[in-house]
C-alpha cells in the first residue's frame, strides 16, 4: 500500500480546484490507499466553520471534507502559520486536524511515497 499526501493551497471558493482535488483524493482512497491531506495558505478556509458559500455561488466545502472520514482519510494536517496569517485558530475549523509548523512540512512530506501539490 502506498502512502499519498495531497497538499492543497487554493481557496475553497476560487474555482473548481478544491473540488477536483477532493475527487482525486476520494478516488485514491476508494482503492484502499493510505491518503492524507495537508492544507496550506488559502486552503485552510476549506474546513472553516460557518462558511457562507452562497455569497460566492459555491458549495460548503467543510461539508464535503466531512465525508473524508467515510473513506478512511483521517489524517488532515494544517500548517500553523497559514492559520495564524489568516486570523484563524483550531477551534474555527470543522474537522479534527494535526497541526504542523512550516519548518516541518518537508519532514512530513518525506513520510509519504507520493505527494500531490495542489
Give a quick rundown of the structure.
With 118 residues, this protein is an alpha/beta fold. Helices cover 26% and strands 20% of the residues. The protein has a single domain, classed as Hypothetical Protein Ychn, Chain: A (3-Layer(aba) Sandwich).
Structure in words:
This protein is of the alpha/beta class and 118 residues long. It has one domain: DsrEFH-like (Hypothetical Protein Ychn, Chain: A, 3-Layer(aba) Sandwich). 26% of the residues lie in helices and 20% in strands. It contains four helices and five strands, in the order βαβαβαβαβ. The chain has helices spanning 17-30, 61-66, 80-85, 105-109, and strands at residues 3-8, 34-39, 75-79, 98-100, 114-117. A five-stranded parallel β-sheet has the order 4-3-2-1-5. Helix 2 (61-66) links the parallel strand 2 and strand 3 (75-79). It is globular and about 40 Å long. The chain starts with a strand and ends with a strand. The mean pLDDT is 88.
Helix-strand layout with pairing:
Blueprint: E1 3-8, H1 17-30, E2 34-39, H2 61-66, E3 75-79, H3 80-85, E4 98-100, H4 105-109, E5 114-117
Parallel strand pairs: 1-2, 1-5, 2-3, 3-4
Amino acid at each position: 500500500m502506498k502512502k499519498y499526501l495531497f497538499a492543497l493551497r487554493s481557496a475553497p471558493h476560487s474555482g473548481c480546484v478544491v473540488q477536483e482535488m477532493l475527487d482525486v483524493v476520494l478516488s485514491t482512497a476508494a482503492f484502499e490507499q493510505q491518503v492524507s491531506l495537508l492544507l496550506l495558505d488559502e486552503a485552510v478556509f476549506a474546513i472553516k466553520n460557518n462558511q457562507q458559500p452562497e455569497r460566492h455561488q459555491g458549495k460548503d466545502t467543510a461539508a464535503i471534507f466531512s465525508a473524508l472520514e467515510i473513506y478512511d482519510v483521517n489524517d488532515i494536517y494544517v500548517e500553523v502559520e497559514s492559520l495564524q496569517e489568516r486570523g484563524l485558530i483550531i477551534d474555527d475549523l470543522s474537522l479534527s486536524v494535526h497541526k504542523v509548523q512550516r519548518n516541518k512540512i518537508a519532514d512530513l512530506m518525506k513520510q509519504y511515497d507520493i505527494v500531490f501539490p495542489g
